[in-house]
Fold:
Amino acid sequence: MSVQSLLSYALTVPELKAGQKFYATFGLAPGERDGVLAFRCDGRDQDQVFLVEGKKKRLNHLRFGSDDQGIATIRGRMRKRGITEIDAPHNAFGGGLWLEDPDGHAINVRPESAQPWRSAPAFAINSPGHYERNGRRGAPKRHEARPHRLGHVLLHTPRLDQMVAFYTETLGMKVTDRVPGIISFLHLPGGGDHHVVALLADARSGFHHASFEVASPDEIGLGAHQVLSAGYKNGWGFGRHVLGSNFFHYLRDPWNSLAEYFCDIDQIPADGSWQAEDHPPEDSLYLWGPQPGDFALNFEEA
Ligand SMILES: [Fe+2]
Structure:
């Protein structure tokens, strides 16, 4: 098997302090690793976001986990396709294999597996016919959102077909769902979340959003409240997607890209039985929620 997990992403940003404040408000724990600003999810011994300083906000790199055999498989595919290894970008600690996707984003595949994450208690809800929460308040005891893992990233791309080909044929991911010419959702070859990478057609490449899982729709609401109360701009939400089915709320970071809280995302079976399908454009956004407004726009500076 080739890539087995999405470990982390790194952004180049013009102001580290602004980034630290945003992600801490969002509910991640800041720290420093090898001189780089890093963030972890609640109770989890693994960095999931890195920020490095640079002129403009950009995706600095995506990091995937695999094993030695998976990395050897990817190396073999690179040789066949004439894709060469690159050096690790400035400020990214090395290790593993570094290559570039067709949009020029640095990709790292390391011999590392995803650490276990906090298993939150099951969301207790009084649904019709199942009134199980007798004499207890429904709201969670913790009045703050603390995401427990990074779920996925979405990138704008002017080369949708080439990017899908790279992530599937070189990295070994699989297409979950497609809205032809608009968006493709990709899952890991071992199944799991409906998408860990999504690719959205645009005139220019860019980092659109990263998404973090929380325990319940309640925690999505708490998270949006804590970020909006701190003065950050709303992105889009609360709502539910069609493809992936997840509940969502997106908040704008200081550079107009987005951080998403999600829960209840569709799970793809590990046995490879999932068949990718094409969907109509109206399925690319939402089942319900507020009007998307400028949600899908690419604000990344050229
Ligand atoms: Fe998302």
Q: What stands out?
A: Residues 5-113+147-283 form a domain with the 2,3-Dihydroxybiphenyl 1,2-Dioxygenase; domain 1 fold (CATH 3.10.180.10). The mean pLDDT is 94.
